[in-house]
Amino acid sequence: MRRNLTYAIFLAIAVSCKPDVQTSQEETKSSEISTIAFGSCAYEYERQPIWDAVVSHNPDLWVWLGDIVYGDTHDMDVLRAKYNQLKSKPEYQQLLQSTEVTGIWDDHDYGINDGGKHFSKKQESQQILLDFLEVAQTDERRSREGVYTSIIYGDTRKVKLILLDPRYFRDTLQASAVEGERYMINEEGDVLGQEQWQWFEKELIENEADVHIIAIGYQLIAEEQGFEKWGNFPKARQRFFDLLSQTKPNNPLVISGDRHIAEFSKIDIPGLPQPLYDFTSSGLTHTWSQMWEESNRYREGELIVKLNFGLLQFNWDAPEPNITMQVRGVGDTLYAEVKMPLLLNP
């Protein structure tokens, strides 16, 4: 009992000391973005030394890409306790004291491994995630289905962050009998659901931002790996690409997690003036137990099987403006770097 009381007091103090930085949907933040950090897949019961490296870059924003905790439960008291366990960690608290935090869920924090629209506790789980992220009670995500939203940062140079929900509306996958493939392809299945698709299209049409960062949960471009991916739903994956072709948002960039690895994937999209990147960063506390070869014809650079987080550095005023995309690890070790050119209006 004494331990539980101490734990509750610690959480109350930690939350009260943190500035109120959360936003409602489509709110514009006036501060210009220079650095965004992101990542996924954190065992709540393990030490998390990687936060020291994240905080050292003083990011303007941290974006969770899912698997914030490993809930995997229909018991919402258990799920909430796991979020609280993560939030109480001193390593994570130092991030909360200095950085705005937002994000989406994936399967384990949603509540069921590889789960989709039929998870019976998704409404309750949604509120627990929003509580963890300290989302205001007036935010639209509190009263509608799904945790998708968008936020615009900056006045002179604007970055629109589009957070998609890849779980709440996602159709079912059937187990595959093919070795090396967990699931069969669902040729007609969907990921986002019609209401979210309509919302997403509207967000892309209203593309006055200089950069569009689209967070999607699991990988969009890579399609040869045998686990969860947008490629399991080829119709939805193509719809995503077609929307980009039709709406032509300025400088789109996809960020994804889920895989316990890091890599850059790149594909040419008709109508876009430069390739689309999918920057995967996953494995804040754990990665593969052993290395194996995994094909990805879209990969740029190497497959990184180490604890990692993603870092985006916006070089607005460089002679050739760009986003420096970095995979970094414990001790702030730099594992990979790719520069994405920015096509900016004067």
- What sequence of helices (H) and strands (E) makes up the elements? HEEHEHHEHHEEHEHEEEEEEE
| CATH architecture verdict | 4-Layer Sandwich
CATH uppermost class: Alpha Beta
Biggest beta-sheet profile: 8 strands, mixed
CATH fold annotation: Purple Acid Phosphatase, chain A, domain 2
Description:
- The chain contains eight helices and 14 strands.
- With 346 residues, the protein is of the alpha/beta class.
- The protein has an eight-stranded mixed β-sheet, covered by helices on one side.
- Helix 2 (50-56) packs parallel to helix 4 (90-96) and helix 3 (76-87) packs parallel to helix 6 (122-132).
Keywords, separated by commas or semicolons:
346 residues, disordered N terminus, 24% helix, Purple Acid Phosphatase, chain A, domain 2
